[in-house]
Amino acid sequence: MPPARSRADFFALSHPLTLPRVPRERLHCRSVTFDGYRRDDGLFDIEAHLVDTKDHDFALLTGVRPAGIPVHDMWVRVTIDAAFNVVDIEAASPSNPYPGYCERIVPDYRKLIGANLVDGFRKRLHDVVGGIKGCTHLTEMLATVPTAAVQTFAGLRKREDEGAGKPFQLDRCHALDTGGEAVRRYYPKWQRVAATGETA
After folding, report:
1. pTM of the entire predicted model
2. Given 76, 125, 131, 164, which residue has the most CB atoms within 10 angstroms?
3. In the chain, what are the domains?
C-alpha cells in the first residue's frame, strides 16, 4: 500500500505555487472558462463564462447572497468565421449585483459584430463597451476571447511554422520574441537578427 500523502505533498501535486507559510481564509473565488466549438455551418463559437462566489454570506445593497450563490454569473458567445471576423455575439447576465440594471447593457455587445478578433479588437472593445458603456466583467471576458479563438484554431490548420505569413503568436510574448532563443530553435525562418533588426 502506498504511503499516505501529506497535505504539502498534495498541494505540490495539484498547485504549482509554494505552500502558503501562514494560515489563510479564502474570501473570494472567481472562475472563468473559455470553450471553443466548430459549428456544422463552417463558423466557430467561442463561449466565455465568469462566476464570482463567496464562501460566506455576502451582504450587497440589493440583498444578501448566500455562500456559494454567484454574485456574478456572466456569459458571452462570440461567433466568428475562419478569418476571425465576428459575425454574431450573444451575452447574458443571469446573476449580478444590481438586478434590473446590470443586464440592461447586454444588447449593446452586438455593436461588436463586424470586428475582427486579431485586428484591433481590444481597442474597438474599449471604444464601444468600455467603462460606463458596458459591463466591466463582460468586457473583461471579451478581451481574452481573441487568444481563446487562436487556441481553438490550433491544430485545424497546417503547422504553425509553415506558410508564407508570420505566425500570429510571434512577438506577442516574452518566449516568442523573434530575437530570442525559442524562435531561433522552433521558428528559424522568422528569427530576427539582433544587430540589424531584420529577419534571418
Report:
1. 0.80
2. 76
3. 25-157 (3.30.390), 160-200 (no CATH)
